[in-house]
Amino acid sequence: MKACVLLAFALLLTGAVSASDQFSWLRDDSRSASKVLNYLNQQNDKTQLYQERIRSLSEPLQQKWQDNRPERADKPWQEIGGYEYAILNHKGKRALLSRLVGSEDLTELLNIDARSAEHDYYQLGDWALDSTKTKLAIAEDITGTEQYRVSVVDLKTQQGTPVARNVDSSLAWSKDGQSLYLIQLEQQTSRPYALTKYFLNQSKPIQLTEELDSAWLLSYYLSSDTQFAVVQANSENSSEQRLLNLDSGEVSEPLLPRKAGVEYYVDVAGSMLFANSNHERNDFAFYSAPLTQATHINLWRTVFEPTDESRISNFYLFEAGAVVVSQSGASQSLHFFDNDDRYRSSQLLADAGQVAWVSQVGDYQSNKLHIRSMSLTQPAKWDRLNTDTLQRELFSQDDYPQYQQSAYQTEQVMVNSGGVTIPVTLAYRKDKLTKTSPVFLYGYGAYGMTMKPYFMSQTISLLDEGVIYAIAHVRGGGFYGDAWYQAGKGIKKENAILDFIAAARDLTAYNLGKRPIYAMGGSAGGTLVAAALNQAPDLFDGAVLKVPFVDVVNSMSDYALPLTAQQYGEWGNPNIADELKVMQQYDPYLNLSEQNYPPILIQVGLNDRRVPYWEGAKYYAKLSELTTGSGPYLLSTNFTQGHSTDRRQSQSQQAFEYAFLLSLTLKDIKAEQ
To answer: Signal peptide position in this chain (predicted)?
Structure first.
């Protein structure tokens, strides 16, 4: 859904410390206690030694990724008001560029490399030009905490002026270009809670609206006609929206009053309001209404109501009309309507065997929509769709000169999990497939997110090493839509874990083979994989847990933290006895026991505010004490990053993860352990 911050702030939690938790000393909210830092450094030294031993695996991977970089065709630029914008490598540096539509003359707006060079961690969030195109507002995270600072850069002098700190990455200018609308974060918890107007003349900021309920988060997104910002408060399963007039600065009353279980997401084009809402039924429908009747819900007109168990996932507005995206099972479709709400036609989003999604949408006037599609073995391509003529054509396709797609095979296999059929997407190189080829199995299974089988040269390099790469589309994800998600969340979280175990078990015998299974999961996927390791340690031959959420009950029992309550629906509510019992049964940290665990690499970021570093550190300490296995068990802490990896270090980190798992398949390296 539009601007939904549920996922963006999923797991922005810190863990409560139970009295019986012997490893609670590893939690240090200040992130400065010498005892803790010494422990983390000691484990880093141990990890570094192993990393040196497998450098013969990791360095060739990185070199291959460099050598096989694609000759990328043009990527669609973002079109806004007759200009196009893109972040590209330009003259040896990464920069934000602009040009007139149809022109090849480039203007450099921001040298991103120059700004990032000053910091060990750097993430550029949103950026926004004022109406005169002389001032550029930018949001930057320089700590990995996702607490952004906002500056305004004078494009003539390239001088920046600080405007705000401790805000999220959203940016919207007032129409007069003299102020910015920002979302303030709570200092202690980082909960986005207040819409604030900041003035460039250093006047005191004005708070326009505040979300007092700690179970709700605040965000906004621009309307298609750019006259409004849609200010949204949302809880785990409900939303409430208002309109911020970017000219007057006035904020409307709620369009619909908040009600448990009711979600609606609106957009504005000219004098009309459009909405995707479930206020009338269990599922969503697409509505329209004159803007003057926005709060009169009985006057909203139903434009499109999906059938055959399909569900509306999003919509886009253009001068030519509306485009509605629906999902039915694993298939997505585009539905087109004219400006009188009359149905025009529909088309599938993806070709058979591919995944696709709407990306890089042009602005309201452009009537351009772009579609990104690929498979595990087919390089990515862009299609451009004209929403006026409904013509769809190939815009560009990445070209890997040394890659031969015919040498690889991708397929979807189905596994049985307690009577439910679970899809698994996998790929391998045909001439490398043997009866003992190892399987690298990835899983996530939370927040209704679909783990798309992207084409990546990094994955292809694994296939070249004889690996079968697989993605388990377990319940709790969004592969088959909302019902699939609901079947693996909250008190049904165990379903996702059992699905992952079933996928691993079936893949050991894939194609009549006898295969080792290596598991990979990050964040909420770390919960999935770590829980599966507890329940079936002998099934797995190794695992990588990246910023894993593994201390579930402790974190969800920290009632002083506002985001805990918002995540009850996803992980369970420890205040309810039956739900607490379920949580205790799957919690990875609680269920570590004296058994033979496979080798595990655990990676954490010291500045992580979504999944604090101590979750992985405590898990590692307890694992090391209880396991009867020989390992290796490694903890790697990045002292300058948070939940996300700085793009400058992402390839080296990924190479280490893959090399760690590859090393476990090699007998000579195993013998050195």
So the answer is: 1-19
